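User: Sequence recovery, please. Input:
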């Protein structure tokens, strides 16, 4: 696929080719203690490339196996949160084979309940049907797997955000995704975005958790609060991440076929065939950003999250295992509104009046 870029796209050039070994860590039940000596201040990220989407996801997870097992200890449920920003366009949504890779990996490590849970901007079960998630449940019929529409469940906790007028506004977040006893897995996709430059794991959870009204109820949509302006959006994502992070167990990014251009729903495919996984959502998204050829300095909400103590964004704090970013990187064509998106980085020009 040929890509064209303007001078404003400050990307680094892909260099070098080399093979990296894929370390496979020993298996032990999640209930067994994991030696604390294996813990590190660095965040471990697995990166793989291959010809099978399901196998890629599983291989990336095996690279971080010790971290996953450690975080699973004591949890009461596993929640897999797909990205269903579209309920009818597969390129914009989490593929069923990505879910298969996650559940297959969990097999010997987790025997408890698994929930596939989403609060789509549309009708969640329309997406489940369109993308054949029911077949995934049937494939693992020996497991306790249930699909949940978080909008229809209508249980929530609140977080206080800034709206477009810089007023505090209460936002309803799906209660399941706030539960510290849950092990929440983001099944994200590599896509460009029309506000936040790229949508990865953090965006998948923070803009997926806000609810909209149930059928036949008075309409509301709390996802709209986040679209008050490019500055508020980055900040509000960080505030939401702080609320959700105690339940975050694992971030998985499926880049088998990414989306460039008019993301997050109307872009075009990028045939990259990669998968990324980490128990640190921020670190996984940093590597995802690099694999998309995006300047990490542009990713405001990820930098904010690190400053708020949610995860590691600095490259020197990431232990990358598996493949090399330079070997796999593809320069994604960004949204046409990228110049406006990047205005979060500059000075605020329409200042309020100075009083007093």
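Assistant: Recovered sequence (356 residues):
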């Amino acid at each position: 696929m040929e890509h064209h870029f303007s001078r404003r796209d400050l990307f680094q050039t892909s260099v070098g080719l080399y093979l990296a070994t894929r370390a496979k860590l020993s298996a032990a039940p999640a209930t067994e203690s994991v030696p604390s000596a294996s813990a590190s201040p660095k965040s471990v990220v697995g990166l793989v490339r291959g010809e099978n989407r399901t196998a890629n996801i599983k291989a990336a997870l095996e690279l971080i196996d010790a971290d996953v097992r450690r975080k699973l200890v004591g949890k009461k449920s596993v929640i897999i949160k797909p990205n269903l920003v579209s309920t009818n366009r597969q390129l914009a949504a989490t593929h069923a084979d990505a879910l298969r890779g996650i559940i297959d990996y969990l097999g010997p490590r987790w025997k408890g309940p698994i929930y596939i849970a989403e609060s789509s901007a549309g009708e969640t079960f329309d997406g489940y049907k369109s993308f054949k998630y029911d077949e995934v449940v049937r494939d693992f019929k020996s497991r306790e797997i249930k699909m949940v529409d978080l909008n229809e469940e209508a249980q929530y906790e609140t977080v206080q955000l800034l709206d477009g007028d810089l007023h505090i506004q209460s936002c309803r977040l799906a209660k399941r995704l706030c539960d510290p006893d849950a092990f929440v897995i983001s099944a994200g996709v590599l896509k460009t975005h029309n506000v936040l430059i790229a949508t990865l794991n953090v965006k998948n959870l923070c803009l997926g958790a806000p609810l909209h009204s149930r059928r036949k109820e008075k309409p509301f949509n709390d996802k709209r609060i986040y679209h008050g302006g490019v500055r508020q959006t980055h900040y509000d994502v960080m505030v939401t991440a702080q609320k959700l992070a105690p339940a975050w167990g694992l971030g998985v990014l499926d880049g088998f076929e990414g989306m460039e251009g008019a993301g997050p729903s109307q872009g075009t495919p990028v045939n990259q065939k990669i998968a990324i996984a980490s128990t640190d959502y921020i670190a996984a998204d940093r590597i995802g950003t690099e694999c998309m050829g995006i300047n990490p300095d542009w990713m405001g909400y990820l930098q904010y999250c690190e400053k708020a103590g949610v995860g590691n964004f600095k490259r020197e704090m990431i232990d990358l295992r598996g493949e090399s970013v330079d070997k796999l990187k593809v320069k994604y064509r960004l949204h046409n509104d990228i110049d406006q998106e990047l205005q979060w980085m500059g000075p605020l020009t329409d200042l309020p009046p100075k009083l007093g």
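Residues 236 and 248 are 18 Å apart (CA to CA).
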